[in-house]
Amino acid sequence: MSRQNKFAYHFRQARREETDAILALFAEEVKAGRMLPRDRGKVEQGITDWRVAEKDGQIIGCVSLVVFNQELCEVRSLAVSPEFRGNGLGKELIAAALGLAEERSIPKVLTLTRSPGLFEQLGFRRDTIQNYPEKVWKDCLPCPLIDHCDETALIYTFPDHA
Fold first, then answer.
1. pTM of the complete model
2. For position 113, which CATH number holds?
3. Is the pLDDT of residue 2 over 60?
């Protein structure tokens, strides 16, 4: 999947040696408190769960898929380099993550986001995080923002599992 315009890029699985570039994509968001930091070791360990957008050898966007069990996974760590925002790259990265979930036959894809409209355009529907104890126990309880979380939970269910 590539754009055929001045923003030409392509998608692929991330590589371990790109961990610094991936982490740099959301460093500013982490610093501003809009994203949680990601552990370098965990990114490297789960590198096959990451997709990147590349342009001229530079990583310009990323997304990861976190698997909770055979029924549920999560799209997270969506980031796009500031100069490439507003061109549909975020949607395409989400679609790449959905493709990975479909390849792995995981029927439900969760996300927590401050930009629900973007995900709703791709078929996600609003839900409540309490419906997904796998996520709550693994990530929400230890999160420093648990008492003032401002993210919206959304779920995507593949049509053959609706």
1. 0.87
2. 3.40.630.30
3. no
